Structure formats: structure tokens, C-alpha cells
């Protein structure tokens, strides 16, 4: 690693951390794996306040020295089969200049600690089927594709826009 990396639970009300979160999220949005388009204006104007007001939202920021290099956005959910809360990881990004340095692993360690502190039974995430570097990073920290019974195959993440 170039410099020591520190991970923190983001304070959505802190102007510097808020700016870092938006910069990293926009960087991710511009990447082909994030959709390839800049964040809409409403995100720049309202996302931090909406995250702060959303029950169970939390974000992890990674800093290499004083530069923000990683972000994980998380939301609390509930597992009915475990009868426990869960954390769903919604966004994961590491700046291209810092990839391959273990930053994703450090951020996930912070998420795991937060999930345990909140009494969660599991952590979930979705990943694009052809994003092999992300899959490798997730496998390294214990994630696996989800299947209840191999006869029925792996679960798929679907969406419907409203």
C-alpha cells in the first residue's frame, strides 16, 4: 500500500466527507460498471440529506493519507429466514489509482464490524456477472453467489423502475 489506509463511517453532515462521498460516487457512476453516466444533479443537491434522513443508511469511506479512495454505501434490511436484520451493500467503489491495494477488504472489514454491532445475521450485495475483479474481491472476503438449492440455480437480482 502506498500510504496507510483509514476507514470511517461517513458523517453525512460533515462537508468534507460529504464532498468525498459525492466525488467517489460520481466517479463510480461514470465507470462502465456504474452505468457510464454522471450522477444526476438531484444527487449532488440532495443525496447527503436524504441518506442522513433514511433509517439504517450508512456509508464507509476509505482514506489513503488525506485522499478519499473508497466508498461503500449500505442499507439495513431484514432476513425473515434468519429473523435478524441484515446489511445490503448497495455501492462499492475504489478509485482506479488505488485498486489492487486491499482497500476493498479494509472497507468490508468496517462494514462487517458495523453489521455485527447492529446484530445482523448476514450481509448481501449484488455484482455484475462480468465484473470479475469485483467478484474476486468479494470472494476474498467471504461472499458467495446465493442459492438455496442448486437444483433451482442461483438467485438473480432484478429490478423494476417506477
TL;DR?
This protein has helices at 15-30, 41-53, 103-117, 132-140, and strands at 5-9, 57-64, 67-79, 84-94, 122-125. The protein is α+β, with helices and mostly antiparallel strands and 162 residues long.
SSE order and pairing:
Elements: E1 5-9, H1 15-30, H2 41-53, E2 57-64, E3 67-79, E4 84-94, H3 103-117, E5 122-125, H4 132-140
Parallel strand pairs: 4-5
Antiparallel strand pairs: 1-2, 2-3, 3-4
Roughly how many Å is the radius of gyration? Answer: 16 Å
Strand order of the largest sheet: 1-2-3-4-5
Largest sheet: 5 strands, mixed
Overall helicity: 25-40%
Q: How many distinct beta strands?
A: 5
Which spans of ≥5 residues are poorly predicted at pLDDT below 50? none
Q: Could you give the order of the helices and strands? A: EHHEEEHEH
Which structural category fits the helices and strands? alpha+beta
Give the overall shape. Answer: globular
Mean pLDDT: 94
Structural features:
162 residues; alpha+beta; five-stranded mixed β-sheet; 33% helix
Polypeptide structure, described:
33% of the residues lie in helices and 25% in strands. With 162 residues, it is an alpha+beta fold. Strands 1-2-3-4-5 form a 5-stranded mixed β-sheet, sandwiched between helices. It is globular and about 45 Å long. The protein starts with a strand and ends in a 22-residue tail after the last helix.
Amino acid at each position: 500500500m502506498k500510504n496507510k489506509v483509514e476507514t470511517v463511517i461517513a458523517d453525512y453532515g460533515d462537508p468534507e466527507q460529504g464532498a468525498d462521498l459525492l466525488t467517489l460516487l460520481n466517479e463510480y457512476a461514470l465507470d462502465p460498471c456504474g452505468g457510464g453516466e454522471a450522477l444526476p444533479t438531484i444527487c449532488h443537491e440532495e443525496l447527503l440529506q436524504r441518506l442522513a434522513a433514511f433509517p439504517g443508511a450508512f456509508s464507509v469511506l476509505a482514506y489513503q493519507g488525506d485522499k478519499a479512495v473508497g466508498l461503500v454505501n449500505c442499507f439495513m434490511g431484514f432476513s425473515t429466514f434468519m429473523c435478524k436484520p441484515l446489511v445490503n451493500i448497495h455501492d462499492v467503489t475504489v478509485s482506479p489509482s488505488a485498486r489492487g491495494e486491499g482497500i476493498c477488504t479494509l472497507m468490508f472489514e468496517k462494514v462487517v464490524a458495523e453489521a455485527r454491532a447492529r446484530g445482523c445475521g448476514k450481509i448481501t450485495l449484488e455484482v455484475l456477472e462480468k465484473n470479475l475483479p469485483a467478484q474476486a474481491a468479494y470472494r476474498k472476503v467471504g461472499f458467495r453467489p446465493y442459492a438455496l438449492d442448486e437444483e433451482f440455480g442461483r438467485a438473480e437480482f432484478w429490478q423494476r423502475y417506477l
